[in-house]
Design a protein that fits this description.
It is a single chain. About 50% of the residues lie in helices and about 20% in strands. The chain is an alpha+beta fold. It is built from eight helices and 15 strands. The protein starts with a helix and ends with a strand.
Length: about 425
C-alpha cells in the first residue's frame, strides 16, 4: 500500500518539476529568440544605412542606377548570408546584390522588419532620402538568412533538453530517498496502529465470548424472568454478536496483508457461488427478492476458498440488505481469456456519484443505506476489497442512486475447462 503511495508522490513531484522546467525552458527560448532577432534587426539596419551612404545615384532620379563605391566591395561589405535589394519609390526592384538564399521574395513593403518563415529570411527596409531637399528616391532592403539563428536555437534546445533530463534524473533519485524518508514515520505509525488493532481485537475476544455464553445460558431459562429482563438479555446477546463480528473483521483487516499464499489451492469458484446462492435463497425469499444467477461451470483459480467465500458472502449480503422488497439481485460469473469476472448486481438504494470513491472505506455507509440495514460492522466491502487484492484481483463498483449498484470482481483463472452455463 505504502509502496504505491510513494510512487504516486514521486510521480507527482516529478510532474510538477517537469512542468516548472518546461515553462522555464519555453520562456528562456522565447527571450533568447527575441534577443537574436532584435540584434539581427539592428545589424541589418546598420548595413542598410551604410549602403545608403556609400551608394551612387544618377542626378535626375528618373532611372535609379545604384552602384556601391569601389572602396566598399561587395565581398567585404556583405556577409555570405546577406543580400541587398534596391527599389524605386513605386516599390519596383531595380537592383540587388548578395547570395540567392539570403534574398526575400516577399512583395515589397516599406514596413520594417519583415520575416519569411517559409524562406527562413529576415529583412529590414529603409527609405533612401536625398539630404538636400529631403526627397524620397527609393528604398533599400537588407536581408539575411536565419540559418545561424536556427542553429543557435537548436543548440539551446539540446542544452536545455539535456539539462531538464539530468535535472529530472537527479530529482528522481533524490525524490525516492526523500519520499522514503518522509513516509517512514507514517508507515511506522500505521504498523503500530495495526498492532494495536490486532491486540485489542484479540483481547476483546475472551470477554465478549464470556458475555455471549452467559447471555445465551440465561435465555435458555426464561421461565423465572420478567418479560423486560428477557428483552434486555436478548439485546445483550445481539450487541455481543455485533461486537464479536466487529472484532473479527478488524482482526482480519489488520492481518490480511500477511495471509500466506503458499498454502493456496485450486478452487472451483462456481461451487462457492452456487453454495452461497443456496444459503441466501431463503433470506431473499423472506424479503420477496428475486435472486437470479448465471454461472459458468468449473471456474478454477488459485486461492483460499475460505477467504473467497467471505468475499462473495459480503457482496451478496450487501446486495440483499440494501435491496427493498420485491427487488432483484443477480449474480453472473464468466471467464474472458485468463480473467474471471463475477458481477453482483442489485436494484437497491444505489450510491450517489460523489460517494462512489468512499464505498470501500472502513465504517462508511451512505445515509440512505442506514435506513435499510443497521446491523453489520461497516467493514464488509473493505474486507471484500482486501481479499480481492490479496488474490491479485480487483473489485470495482458502478451505481446510480435509487436505481441500483453493480460490484464487479476480477480474478485470475488457473485453468479454463469447457464452459457450461448453469441458470437458476
Amino acid at each position: 500500500m505504502f509502496q504505491k503511495i510513494r510512487y504516486q508522490l514521486l510521480l507527482s513531484y516529478l510532474l510538477v518539476l517537469a512542468t516548472i522546467l518546461g515553462v522555464f525552458t519555453f520562456v528562456v527560448r522565447i527571450a533568447f529568440y527575441r534577443s537574436l532577432t532584435n540584434q539581427l534587426t539592428k545589424t541589418l539596419t546598420f548595413i542598410g544605412q551604410s549602403a545608403i551612404v556609400n551608394a551612387h545615384y544618377d542626378k535626375n532620379f528618373k532611372d535609379v542606377k545604384i552602384q556601391i563605391d569601389r572602396k566598399f566591395p561587395e565581398k567585404d561589405f556583405l556577409a555570405a548570408d546577406q543580400a541587398l535589394q534596391w527599389f524605386n519609390p513605386q516599390g519596383d526592384l531595380v537592383a540587388q546584390q548578395g547570395k540567392g538564399n539570403a534574398f526575400l521574395t516577399l512583395p515589397f513593403s516599406a514596413n520594417e522588419p519583415v520575416q519569411s518563415q517559409e524562406e527562413k529570411v529576415q529583412g529590414v527596409t529603409l527609405p533612401i532620402i536625398v539630404n538636400n531637399d529631403r526627397k524620397l528616391i527609393g528604398y533599400v532592403r537588407v536581408s539575411q538568412s536565419l540559418e545561424d539563428i536556427d542553429q543557435s536555437l537548436n543548440k539551446l534546445d539540446w542544452g536545455l533538453g539535456g539539462g531538464i533530463c539530468i535535472a529530472l534524473l537527479l530529482s528522481g533519485v533524490s525524490g525516492i530517498l526523500l519520499t522514503r524518508q518522509a513516509m517512514k514515520p507514517i508507515e511506522e505509525g500505521f504498523q503500530r496502529f495495526k498492532q494495536f488493532t490486532t491486540d485489542a481485537s484479540h483481547e476483546l475476544r475472551s470477554p465478549l465470548m464470556a458475555i455471549k455464553i452467559n447471555a445465551t445460558v440465561a435465555l435458555k431459562y426464561i421461565e423465572g424472568m420478567r418479560e423486560t429482563d428477557v428483552k434486555k438479555f436478548q439485546s445483550i446477546a445481539s450487541a455481543t454478536n455485533q461486537m464479536i463480528r466487529l472484532t473479527e473483521d478488524l482482526l482480519f483487516l489488520a492481518r490480511y496483508d500477511k495471509i500466506p499464499t503458499q498454502n493456496w489451492d485450486t478452487v472451483n469458484l462456481t461451487v462457492i457461488l452456487d453454495n452461497l446462492l443456496q444459503l441466501y435463497k431463503l433470506q431473499a425469499e423472506a424479503k420477496q427478492i428475486n435472486l437470479q444467477s448465471e454461472l459458468i461451470q468449473n471456474l478454477y483459480l488459485l486461492g483460499d476458498s475460505v477467504q473467497l467465500t467471505r468475499l462473495f458472502t459480503n457482496l451478496i449480503e450487501n446486495a440483499i440488505n440494501y435491496t427493498s422488497n420485491e427487488g432483484l439481485v443477480e449474480i453472473k460469473a464468466s471467464q474472458i481469456g485468463s480473467q474471471i469476472y463475477v458481477k453482483v448486481r442489485d436494484t437497491g438504494v444505489g450510491i450517489a456519484l460523489e460517494n462512489i470513491d468512499k464505498v470501500f472505506d472502513r465504517f462508511w455507509r451512505a445515509e440512505q443505506s442506514r435506513s435499510y440495514h443497521l446491523g453489520g460492522s461497516g467493514l464488509g466491502l473493505a474486507i471484500a476489497q482486501a481479499i480481492a487484492e490479496s488474490h491479485g484481483g480487483l473489485i470495482t463498483v458502478t451505481s446510480q442512486l435509487n436505481v441500483g449498484s453493480c460490484f464487479t470482481v476480477r480474478l485470475s483463472a488457473s485453468t479454463a475447462p469447457l464452459e457450461l452455463k448453469i441458470k437458476t
